[in-house]
Write a structure and sequence with these properties.
It is a single chain. It contains 11 helices and 21 strands. It has 422 residues and is α+β, with helices and mostly antiparallel strands. It folds into 3 domains: 225 residues, no CATH class; 111 residues, no CATH class; 35 residues. The strands form 4 sheets. Strands 2-6-12-4-1-21-19-15-16-18 form a 10-stranded mixed β-sheet. Strands 5, 7, 9, 10, 11 and 20 form a 6-stranded antiparallel β-sheet that branches. The chain has a 3-stranded antiparallel β-sheet with strand order 13-14-17, with no helix packed on it. About 2% of the residues have low confidence. It comes from Luteolibacter yonseiensis. This is DUF2931 family protein.
């Protein structure tokens, strides 16, 4: 109601541009060891996308590859496609410390005619790997040099590796019409293959968007992977106290520490946020036990906190509901925090014409943190042999954060071995 009332008042004034607002939410996921080191291996997917979502070839997650590019690969490299491997899609990837998950961009307008808009989002440190609707422009991933003899000597898998240890900057562009409220009500947003999370992101109180090819949706969607430090340092000492330090260069407006361990859910909310260079020490005793499964107090706290950062109540609920299972039903210790706006604009620079009268961007940092006692358990598990090693191997091979944990365990093993040698 508040957004609609503001727009109605503004649209009655004389203006050179159409009046509308842009709202965005999304997540940066990281994993750090108890010593605060950001770990790589974040290229694995957790939530499968509908088959109609687009992606770079080799980075599909539910969608079909572009067959023109598949034929091009066969002609130039001697294979029908990038060979299969474990990870995101089928392309080998290295050095990923951040998974950018499901940013969605909403539009609010009471204009009586559709607004033609051009939207560009950059990604400083990563690739925008998946998106919907179809983009009008954007980065192209680097390709290997074609084989001199594709049939006899196909391009090796190693040549396809996308290495984020090297500087990378991606971007995406859309050329869209922001539909009027009447057109939005009449639009068919249903698509065969819709999944629950995709539908949870739709908001009936926002304006639908449509491309020149007729693809229509309630929002612009994109995902990505990359290597950079979002700016929250998390460490856990030998006494299992979580320490959080704000190195973003701005004020973090909202923060929640959350954990599921041995089936017990516990959390604490910091509504005052965290000032620039501020430090929080959160002992385990500060994490209060709550109802396992669905916690209404946690739901209400998180949605209220996100709404205070600028989202509408419906948008905040949409974000929490979209990510509820991943955020609040998965074991582990994690910190949720809202990036300062200046950090968001630096990492994801946004350009749009005509300009909105208001831009709200709420990107949530999801910082997964490994506790020392967890690390000791994983280290012991990694040392098992024979049939006893199966659980560890399965975890590393299949868990979303298995590659990151394996990296941390390898580091701990190296330290232990070094100590034994001295």
């Amino acid at each position: 109601m508040k957004t609609s009332a503001v727009l109605l008042l503004m649209s009655t004034a004389c203006h050179a541009w159409p009046v509308y607002q842009l709202h965005e939410w999304g997540t940066f996921t990281t994993v750090s060891g108890s010593d605060g080191t950001l770990l790589t291996g974040l290229e694995r997917e957790e939530e499968t996308l509908p088959g109609f979502a687009y992606s770079h070839i080799g980075l599909e997650n539910g969608g079909r590859p572009n067959m023109d590019e598949v034929r091009r690969i066969f002609k130039e490299h001697g294979t029908q496609g990038i060979p299969s491997f474990k990870g995101l899609g089928r392309r080998p990837i290295k050095g990923v410390t951040v998974k950018m998950e499901t940013p969605v961009i909403y539009f609010h307008s009471n204009e009586t005619a559709p607004i033609h808009a051009k939207v560009k989002v950059g990604f400083d440190g990563g690739t925008i790997s998946q998106w919907y609707p179809q983009r009008s422009g954007g980065e192209m991933l680097p390709w290997p040099v074609p084989s001199a003899n594709p049939i006899a000597k196909p391009t090796p898998l190693s040549a396809w590796t996308l290495d984020f240890n090297k500087p990378y900057r991606g971007f995406i562009e859309w050329d869209i019409d922001i539909l009027t409220p009447a057109q939005t009500r009449d639009a068919i947003l249903f698509k065969p293959g819709d999944n629950v999370n995709w539908m949870r992101a739709r908001q009936p109180m926002t304006n639908a968007v449509r491309t020149a090819d007729g693809e229509t949706e309630g929002y612009l969607f994109y995902r990505g992977i990359g290597r950079f430090d979002p700016g929250l340092k998390t460490t856990v000492g030998p006494d299992e106290t979580l320490r959080v330090e704000n190195l973003t260069g701005g004020r973090i407006p909202y923060l929640v520490a959350f954990e599921i361990a041995d089936g017990t859910l516990r959390w604490v909310e910091k509504t005052e946020g965290l000032d620039e260079k501020g430090i929080l020490a959160i002992p385990e005793s500060d994490l209060k036990n709550d109802t396992s499964g669905f916690s209404e107090p946690l739901y209400r706290a998180m949605t209220t906190g996100l709404a205070k950062c600028g989202l509408t109540d419906a948008e905040a609920r949409s974000m929490v509901e979209t990510w509820w299972r991943s955020y609040f039903e998965s074991p582990g210790l994690r910190v949720f925090w809202v990036l300062p706006r200046e950090s968001t604009d630096r990492l994801l620079p946004l350009e749009i014409t005509p300009p909105p009268v208001e831009i709200v961007r709420v990107i949530v940092g999801r910082s997964e943190v490994l506790r020392p006692r967890q690390e000791k358990e994983w280290l012991a598990s990694s040392r098992k042999t024979g049939d006893d090693a199966a659980a560890w191997e399965t975890f590393v091979g299949t868990d979303r954060f298995g590659l990151s944990v394996a990296q941390r365990v390898k580091s701990l093993e190296s330290v232990a071995t070094s100590g034994e040698n001295h």
